[in-house]
Amino acid sequence: MTITHPMARWLIKQLNETESDYTPLTRRARHPRTSHDQDYILADVAAKRRVLERHPPKDDPTSLLWVCSTCRGRPQWPCPEIRDAASVFARRPGYRKEWKPDD
Ligand SMILES: [Zn+2]
Fold it and tell me: In this predicted model, what pLDDT tens digit does every residue of 41-91 receive, in sequence order?
């Protein structure tokens, strides 16, 4: 499946960059931290990828909105699950305040 929604593409970019930063070949140069940190971060990236796979955006031609393919009630995408997953990247360039999770 090709992801075309701009927020999904942005989130995938953040996941790819984070994964790249913490791969064994680059980790020491960029992030001299413990392997526990590396394992945790790579596992977290993988978990967020699975959340995105389970909650893909779907273009709804009847409403002209993007909706979640999975969540009940088909909330507008990004759904709460995706907003939570993306919120850890809120300080990175490109993050929009409208993606912030609801309190
Ligand atoms: Zn969802």
Answer: 999 999 999 999 999 999 877 878 899 999 988 788 999 999 999 999 999
Which domain does 17 fall in, by range? Answer: 6-99
In a domain, 1, yes or no: no
Name the phi and psi angles at 68, rounded to 5.
-80, 135
Number of domains within the chain? 1
Ligand 1 center to residue 3 CA distance, Å? Answer: 15
CA distance 24 to 17: 14
Whether the upstream peptide bond of residue 78 has omega within 30° of 0, thus cis, is: yes
Output the CA 51–ligand 1 centroid distance in Å. Answer: 8
Whole-structure pTM value: 0.83
Measured CA angle at 60 (ends 55, 62), to 5 deg: 155
| Ligand 1 center to 4 CA (angstroms) | 16
Alpha carbons 45 and 15: distance in angstroms, whole number: 6
Query: In this structure, is residue 95 part of a structural domain?
Result: yes
